[in-house]
């Protein structure tokens, strides 16, 4: 009977709160509606239970609704909260620190490290003046003329695409504040921040109004906004980052985003950013490529001179880095990818090494990043740990790797069979005078090496017949084991 | 003497406990540890955003390193108050949807209530990104620990990784992304834009393979009992941990705690004297060398030690060299040979027939009919195997198949081929068959002779 009592009792408790809140505070509560109706259904329970629960009532009365301040603080139910989040009335927040960061005394290296962090975007990007001008004149022209248009910006990661575009937008917004340019709206989406392409509609609509709606609804609202002419419509600049992610098979989202600018009512300027230069021809449909137009801009990878300039601009006259150290970083990174993020990260790591490495000898003021620190950082971050890994394998694992290499040489093909490798192990183990591992143990070793990806192997249920590929070069194996032997 | 017996049982419990549940004690790796520690400390105290990959073979102590660093830092109030720790595991969080819900709950965001997250996947992602974007240097640092990092790389578009690394590279809430994986080439799994956003800090953890002495010393440490002073300091360390009662650390609830153990001083002295005597014996050294040759990781040694410790009994209270050697032989022996020795003579005869077929035709595949023909030739002239019916041989053949001593050529099986005609391959080496024939109990001489040569 106690179990049966559970539900009505709860409903009564809730109903007390509801009544009291509604009648005392005129506050609207959405969720307890259900329990109120339930109360009506279970009317015959009420007298019994209300007498039973009467001691509870005054306590509740005293806790809620005594003052207006408390009413605001009254905890929302999760679904109420969710409703507020969707309406954009509840701004998302992070938990705050208990202690604030001490921004007091900082050493030169620390300052340099902060300046070198990738997130500290400078006001004007060095070495991207030409691209800046290009995008600036395009956007300024479109805003002045109050017509729509598209632009496609491409380049490998870390070459300053997004930073330049947002820099242009910031400059334009400053101009708007000085009344030198008609006002415009700026929206921004990123393909990788969406779970699927159609969520783009939701994000765009959310930036316009702050409300979260379903994508179908958002789509029709946006369609209405961009296709119907309205007086005093502001120009809207839409930045679409990671365009390739928005391309699905039907390409309806990309089509819509690029089709709206062609409408005369829209006043929409779309700037799209992606990595590959030939994305429009390679991935997009003909009609989408046609709408994307031919206003394109390619960001070349940074050369070593430019990288050096970027790093020195960040350091801004601080003495923390030796000139040749920066040059070494720039040259090494430019040779690999020309990625500015990489150069900055390596420099930051070098400051850390300098910070810890020279602690006992030099005093904090004269600490400086030298070539040796940079060299160590480069060794860590452009690391190939394969030789190290082979050196640190157990004896049997090393024999196994040697055996795979030997089998590759014997057969001439890259792909070897466990069976053949095991025969080689027998030979090598006998030659070296070590105990021979049973095939089961050898399979164990094989899967361990496979987990580390020194070799690539199949599932070991294939037993003797699993195929094994060497994932390191045979020279690495010889190098690692020969040098160790001496 | 019952008192001594009690003490031995207590010692066994202590050793087992320490082997299994001591999640925070890390041996070695000084440089790597201080590297990770400084990174986390800078994240918490200066609000720097960072990312790091911890790479090393399985059993190298990657998780233990993180645990030990975190427990170290957790004693520091400045760290506890200013950081949230979010644990994710690629094996549990098999897609971004689940991972995102878990992040939302662990960060105690506003759309989570009592572990239940409201809203769709897209809403959750948008909300999380908004929260992180709203944060700045004043907000708490978040430390994301992604175990089995390579599995996160397999998620759709690598959305989660992109966003985590993107936050770490832009002026938002300070976060630190720690990836833990055993794959050396994990960076190659990242997409180009994700790779560009990852600061290429990698910490490699390799068990040191060069010092056998270290390995032996570790073994000695694992089986000896610390003095009461060391026990006391350990208790203090654990107590300070438990005081924090942080929810993020599930391991603390069930951590090894030496407070329950106090040993008689004379017993400890005797025990440790025994152990150091044991370490000097050549048998033990040879055994350890064998284990060391096979696998240098601490996890493997601990497994061995646990089995060793489990052998301690009231009646046999000492760890002896013979015990160690006897256990080690189990690592050397071949399970498949044991399996072969458990077969019936008929099944062994079939294996021998298969072996003959394989040697003659250089490991060509075979089917039941071929094997049965070869077996029949032997059975006709043998005195023990005459009159075995075909159905029984087929049954024996099927038995060999389900214990996977022989394996069908194609996994699909095609369905069309009758079972007598389906082609198989032999999943044994000839050496194993030879060993089995030698070790088989009460094998008829005829069979043993037939195994030597295929001529009858």
UniProtKB/TrEMBL annotation, chain B:
Q: Which compartments is it annotated to reside in? A: Nucleus
Q: Is Chloroplast tagged as a keyword?
A: no
Chief location of this protein? Answer: nucleus
GO molecular function, one example? ATP binding
UniProt keyword annotations, A-Z = ATP-binding, DNA replication, DNA-binding, Nucleotide-binding, Nucleus
GO BP term (any one): DNA replication initiation
According to the entry, every stretch annotated as the Origin recognition complex subunit 4 C-terminal domain falls at 218-437
Q: Which InterPro entries match?
A: AAA_16, ORC4, ORC4_C, P-loop_NTPase
* One GO CC term, this protein: nuclear origin of replication recognition complex
User: Can you give the residue ranges of the Orc1-like AAA ATPase domain?
Assistant: 27-177
Could you tell me what this protein does? Answer: Component of the origin recognition complex (ORC) that binds origins of replication.
Q: What family name appears in the similarity comment?
A: Belongs to the ORC4 family.
Protein's UniProt name: Origin recognition complex subunit 4
Say which species the protein is native to.
Drosophila albomicans
């Amino acid at each position: 009977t106690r179990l049966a009592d559970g539900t009505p009792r709860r409903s009564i408790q809730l109903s007390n709160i509801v009544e009291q809140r509604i009648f005392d505070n005129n506050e609207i509560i959405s969720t307890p509606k259900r329990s109120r109706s339930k109360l009506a259904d279970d009317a015959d329970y009420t007298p019994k239970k209300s007498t039973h629960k009467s001691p509870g009532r005054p306590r509740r009365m005293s806790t809620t609704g005594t003052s207006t301040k408390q009413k605001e603080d009254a905890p929302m139910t999760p679904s109420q909260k969710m409703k507020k989040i969707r309406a954009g009335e509840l701004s998302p927040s992070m938990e705050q620190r208990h202690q604030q960061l001490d921004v007091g005394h900082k050493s030169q290296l620390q300052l340099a490290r902060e300046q070198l962090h990738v997130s500290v975007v400078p006001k004007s990007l060095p070495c991207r003046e030409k691209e800046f001008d290009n995008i600036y004149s395009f956007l300024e022209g479109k805003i002045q003329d109050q017509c729509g248009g598209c632009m496609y910006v491409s380049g490998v990661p870390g070459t300053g695409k997004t930073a330049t575009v947002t820099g242009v937008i910031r400059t334009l917004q400053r101009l708007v504040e000085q009344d030198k340019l008609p006002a415009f709206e700026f929206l921004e989406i990123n393909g990788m921040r969406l779970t699927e392409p159609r969520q783009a509609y939701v994000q765009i609509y959310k930036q316009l109004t702050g409300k979260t709606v379903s994508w179908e609804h958002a789509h029709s609202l946006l369609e209405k906004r961009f296709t119907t002419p309205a007086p005093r419509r502001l120009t809207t600049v839409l930045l679409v980052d990671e365009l390739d992610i928005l391309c699905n098979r039907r390409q309806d989202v990309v089509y819509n985003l690029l089709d709206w600018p062609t409408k005369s009512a829209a006043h929409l300027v779309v700037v799209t950013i992606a990595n590959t230069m030939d994305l429009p021809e390679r991935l997009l449909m003909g009609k989408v490529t046609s709408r994307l137009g031919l206003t394109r801009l390619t960001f070349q990878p940074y050369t070593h001179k430019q990288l050096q300039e970027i790093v020195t601009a960040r350091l801004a006259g601080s003495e923390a880095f030796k000139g040749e150290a920066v040059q070494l970083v720039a040259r090494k990174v430019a040779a690999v990818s020309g990625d500015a993020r990489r150069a900055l990260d390596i420099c930051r790591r070098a400051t850390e090494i300098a910070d810890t490495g020279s602690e006992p000898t030099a005093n904090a003021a004269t600490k400086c990043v030298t070539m040796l620190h940079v060299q160590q950082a480069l060794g860590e971050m452009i690391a190939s740990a394969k030789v190290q890994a082979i050196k640190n394998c157990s004896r049997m694992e090393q024999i196994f790797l040697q055996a795979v290499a030997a089998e590759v040489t014997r057969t001439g093909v890259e792909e070897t069979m466990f069976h053949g490798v095991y025969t080689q192990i027998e030979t090598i183990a006998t030659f070296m005078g070590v105990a021979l591992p049973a095939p089961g143990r050898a399979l164990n070793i094989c899967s361990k090496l496979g987990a580390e990806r020194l070799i690539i192997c199949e599932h070991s249920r294939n037993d003797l017949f699993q195929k094994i590929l060497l994932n390191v070069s045979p020279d690495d194996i010889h190098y690692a084991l020969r040098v160790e032997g001496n | 003497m019952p008192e001594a017996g009690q003490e031995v049982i207590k010692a066994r419990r202590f050793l087992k406990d320490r082997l299994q549940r001591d999640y925070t004690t890390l041996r070695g790796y000084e440089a790597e540890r201080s590297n990770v520690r400084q990174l986390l400390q800078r994240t918490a105290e200066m609000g720097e955003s960072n990312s790091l990959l911890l790479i090393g073979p399985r059993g190298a102590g990657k998780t233990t390193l993180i645990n030990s660093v975190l427990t170290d830092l957790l004693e520091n109030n400045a760290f506890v108050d200013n950081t949230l720790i979010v644990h994710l595991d690629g094996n549990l969080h098999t897609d971004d949807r689940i991972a995102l819900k878990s992040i939302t709950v662990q960060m105690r965001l506003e759309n989570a209530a009592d572990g239940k997250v409201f809203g769709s996947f897209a809403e959750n992602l948008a909300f999380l990104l908004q929260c992180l974007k709203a944060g700045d240097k004043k907000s708490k640092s978040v430390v994301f620990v992604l175990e089995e990092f390579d599995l996160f790389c397999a998620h759709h578009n690598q959305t989660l990784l992109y966003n985590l690394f993107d936050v770490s590279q832009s002026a938002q809430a300070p976060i630190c992304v720690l990836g833990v994986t055993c794959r050396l080439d994990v960076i190659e799994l990242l997409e180009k834009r994700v790779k560009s956003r990852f600061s290429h800090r990698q910490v490699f953890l390799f068990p040191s393979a060069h010092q056998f002495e270290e390995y032996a010393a570790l073994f000695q440490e694992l089986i000896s009992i610390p003095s009461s002073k060391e026990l006391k300091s350990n208790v203090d360390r654990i107590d300070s941990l438990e005081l924090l009662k942080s929810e993020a650390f599930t391991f603390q609830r069930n951590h090894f705690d030496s407070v329950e153990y106090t040993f008689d001083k004379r017993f400890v002295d005797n025990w440790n004297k025994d152990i150091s005597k044991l370490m000097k014996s050549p048998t033990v050294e040879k055994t350890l060398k064998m284990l060391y040759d096979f696998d240098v990781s601490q996890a493997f040694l601990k497994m061995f030690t646990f089995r060793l410790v489990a052998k301690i009994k009231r009646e046999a209270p000492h760890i002896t060299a013979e015990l160690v050697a006897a256990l080690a032989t189990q690592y050397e022996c071949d399970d498949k040979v044991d399996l072969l020795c458990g077969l019936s003579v008929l099944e062994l005869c079939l294996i021998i027939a298969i072996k003959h077929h394989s040697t003659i035709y250089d490991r060509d595949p075979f089917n039941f009919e071929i094997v049965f023909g070869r077996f029949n030739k032997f059975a006709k002239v043998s005195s023990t195997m005459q009159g075995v019916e075909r159905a029984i041989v087929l049954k024996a053949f099927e038995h060999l198949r389900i214990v996977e001593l022989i394996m069908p050529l194609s996994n699909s099986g095609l369905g069309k081929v009758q079972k007598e005609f389906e082609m198989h391959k032999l999943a044994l080496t000839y050496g194993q068959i030879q060993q089995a024939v030698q070790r088989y109990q009460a094998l008829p001489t005829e069979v043993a002779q037939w195994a030597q040569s295929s001529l009858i």
